[in-house]
Amino acid sequence: MTATPDGRYLVIGGRRWRATDPSLPDDVVEALRSELGRARSGIGAATDERRISSLRDHVQTAKEGLGERGTPWWEMDERDRLERASTALEHLRADQGSPGSSPKGAR
User: How far apart are CA 53 and CA 59, in angstroms?
Assistant: First the structure.
């Protein structure tokens, strides 16, 4: 794995992937990656399509919070980038469809 000279992308196996926003505090990155990993693990174990969809949304939100999807982090000012990460983490933690919970509307 190598980074592009501008630090915006990682090159893995010849493919370019957007790098995590380098301005994010380590504890926020760790929390978002934890949520991301739990959601990805849940997708592999899930059998219900609604649950899989909910977990995929969870992955998307975590990746956006990390700056790996959505508006590129280098096009945003630092304050907005930190706000995006904090909002994503709050949403993931409050989401009733989070890993370990039943999907929204299912009881």
Answer: 10
